[in-house]
Amino acid sequence: MDSIPDFIKLPTDNIYKFLAIAGLILIILCDTIPILIERDLSIQTIQTQGDYNTLNQEVNFLAEDISWAQNNKENLTVEQAQELQDRARQQLLKNIELNNKLNLLNFYKDELNQIWIFRWVVISIGILLAIIGFGYWYFRWQQPLDLIIRNETQKLKKRRKSLIVPVGKK
């Protein structure tokens, strides 16, 4: 029993159809996948840039709090000083983390630029395969079938004409 449903099976009964379908698949995949990857990277970059802007604002608030603490050393408790120090460390760690994430995203974008060049090569191969496949399929497979069908149709028309007896003649 065949496990693949009929509607999923590709028409690969000859090499020409296979070449044409392989070419089309290459064209579609190489056209869509890099675009989807670039979209995802752009979204991640925007989100990371937003996180980075938020962190900068938090650093500004922390700088204001530290400035206030320096001006009011006599009113500053040990807990408040410890909290400021902890916040400063957390900000520094977030900054390092976001810089690493931005560097990684930039690396991925550079890699994607290299894929764009490779993409055009593969799309060109896909177009060539599709042209060869559809061309050979049409000229070596479909035209002879059309000729056979046309000849059979003409034979059937002639046969039908010879079988039709005009009304009133016997």
Q: Could you walk me through the main structural features you see in this protein, from its secondary elements to its overall organization?
A:
With 170 residues, the chain is mostly helical. The chain has one domain (15-163). The chain is 84% helix and 0% strand. The chain contains 2 helices and no strands. Helix 1 runs antiparallel to helix 2. The protein is rod-shaped and about 125 Å long. It starts with 14 loop residues before the first helix and ends in a 7-residue tail after the last helix.
Helix and strand layout, with pairings?
Elements: H1 15-71, H2 78-163
Distinctive features:
single chain, 170 residues, mainly alpha, 2 helices, 0% strand, rod-shaped
The number of helical segments is: 2
Q: Rg from C-alpha positions?
A: 36 Å
Low-pLDDT stretches are: none
- Overall shape: rod-shaped
Biggest β-sheet description: none
- Report the end-to-end length measured between terminal Cα atoms: 57 Å
Work out the helicity level. over 70%
Secondary-structure content class: mainly alpha
Strand content: under 5%
Number of domains: 1
- Topology as H/E string? HH
Average pLDDT number: 85
Q: Total strand count, please?
A: 0
Q: Give the oligomeric state of the chains in this entry, treating copies of one chain as homo and distinct chains as hetero.
A: single chain
What's a quick, concise take on this entry?
This protein has one domain (15-163).
